[in-house]
Automatic annotation (TrEMBL):
Name of the featured protein: Type II secretion system protein
SUPFAM superfamilies: Pili subunits
Keyword Transport in record: no
Transmembrane segments: 12-35
Organism for this UniProt entry: Roseofilum halophilum BLCC-M91
Pfam assignment, any one: N_methyl
Length: 190
């Protein structure tokens, strides 16, 4: 005997709309957290690039028994270059500059004085920071830090995300850090 009707499987339109609505709600709740996570990863990656650049210059200085330098600038966007020390007064603008993420900014003296590496104050190199390492891999000159943050962050916000690399000893030891809620010596990244 043949069955006159057959039951069809599937979902109704209302069931599909309910599932789509639930997915949309979950996405709306989780998307801001995910975007913040991605932005913080960009900042962390920038810090790691700067840390590796400093380590490369230190290693090259020991290997070559010469002074090596890492130069940093924000113009036109955040960049760094690893190179041998050039004679005093040399133009650094023609170096092989490596780009950081364009959403990132090197936090300078005008913005809470977070970066404390030596900075050229005049001439063609004005505004460029540097860290040098001598033939032993020790800092050649002052110790300090390089700090990065987001271009669009509020500079007065004490909780703004910051990441920094600190050259902290005369032997050239380096460490990485992030923003703190309280200042220490005028800095939030220590």
């Amino acid at each position: 005997m043949l069955e006159s009707w057959r039951k069809e499987g599937g979902f109704t339109l209302i069931e599909l709309l309910v599932v789509i609505a639930l997915i949309a709600i979950v996405m709306a709740i989780s998307l801001p957290s995910y975007l913040r996570f991605v932005r913080l990863q960009e900042l962390k990656l920038a810090r790691e690039e700067l840390h590796l650049a400093l380590k490369e210059a230190q290693s090259n200085a020991k290997r070559d028994k010469l002074v090596w330098q890492v130069s940093f600038r924000n113009n036109p966007h955040p960049q760094y270059a690893v190179h041998q020390r050039l004679p005093s007064g040399s133009d650094l603008t023609g170096l092989n500059w490596q780009d950081l993420n364009r959403n990132i900014l090197i936090i300078d003296g005008k913005n809470q004085n977070e970066t404390t590496f030596y900075q050229y104050t005049r001439g063609v190199n004005k505004g460029i920071w540097r860290m040098q390492f001598n033939h032993h891999g020790h800092p050649n000159g002052q110790l300090g830090r390089i700090t990065v943050g987001f271009k669009d962050s509020d500079l007065q916000n004490k909780r703004r995300p910051l990441r920094c690399v600190i050259v902290s000893t005369l032997l050239g030891a380096m460490r990485r850090s992030h923003e703190q809620t309280k200042k220490e010596n005028g800095k939030y990244c220590y």
